[in-house]
Amino acid sequence: DIVVDITSYKGKDYIISKNNLFVNDHSKSSILVNKDEFWEFFHAHKYKFKINSENEKHFFEIDFNQPKEAFTLERILIQNNFIGVGTNVGLFQISLSGELLAYYPIHTFNFTFIKNQLIESHPFGGVKIFTDLKKMKYKYYTEIYNDVPTNVVSITNNSNAVFFGSSLDGVYKYENGKFI
C-alpha cells in the first residue's frame, strides 16, 4: 500500500493508504480499519444524509453508487481524541481504538476542526463551517468575496484561528467568525 497521509498523536503515527488506516506505536504497525470495514459502514449509513448532500450546491458531488474498487482514503486528521478520515465518498469519524463512529457525506480534500466545528473547503471555492455536524448544520462562505479563500491546498489551525493555503492567492486566516 502506498502512503497517502500521516499524522502523529500521543506518541503514535496514524497512516492512511488508499485502502487502510494503520496505527504505528513504534514497535509494530497494524491495520486499525480496513477498506472493507469503511465500505460496509458507508453503505450502512449513506442514506442518512444523502438527500442533503446531493441537493446542496455547496457540496462536492459524491458518487454513492461507485464500485468498491474506486473507494479511496484521502486525508487523515486527529482532533478531540478522534480520527477524521476524508475519503472520496465522504468523511468518517473513528475512535482512537478503531471503532467507526459516524459517516458524513462531505467529500473534501482539506478540512480541520476548531472549537468543535468542522471547517472544510470546497475544491472549486468557498468554505463551509459546520456548527452542528450531526445535523449537517453549516454556514457557507462564498468565494465571490476577496477574503474567502479559493484553490485551497492546505488547512491548519492553532487554538484560535484557521489558516488556509491557496495555490494561487496566498494565505488566508479565519478567526473569531471572520475571514481576515
Description of the molecule:
The chain is mainly beta and 180 residues long. Helix content is 9%, strand content 48%. The strands form four sheets. A four-stranded antiparallel β-sheet has the order 1-2-3-4. Strands 5-6-7-8 form a four-stranded antiparallel β-sheet, with helices on one face. The model has no long low-confidence stretch (mean pLDDT 88).
Layout of strands and helices, then pairs:
Elements: E1 3-9, E2 12-17, E3 21-24, E4 29-33, H1 35-45, H2 50-55, E5 73-79, E6 82-87, E7 90-95, E8 100-104, E9 111-114, E10 117-121, E11 127-132, E12 137-141, E13 152-157, E14 161-166, E15 170-175, E16 178-179
Briefly characterize the structure.
The chain has helices at 35-45, 50-55, and strands spanning 3-9, 12-17, 21-24, 29-33, 73-79, 82-87, 90-95, 100-104, 111-114, 117-121, 127-132, 137-141, 152-157, 161-166, 170-175, 178-179. The chain is mainly β. The radius of gyration is 16 Å and the shape is globular.
Q: What summary fits the major beta sheet?
A: 4 strands, antiparallel
What is the count of helical runs? 2
Which strand order does the major sheet show? 1-2-3-4
Oligomer status: single chain
Mean of pLDDT: 88
Extract low-pLDDT stretches: none
Element order: H for helix, E for strand:
EEEEHHEEEEEEEEEEEE
- The total count of strands amounts to 16
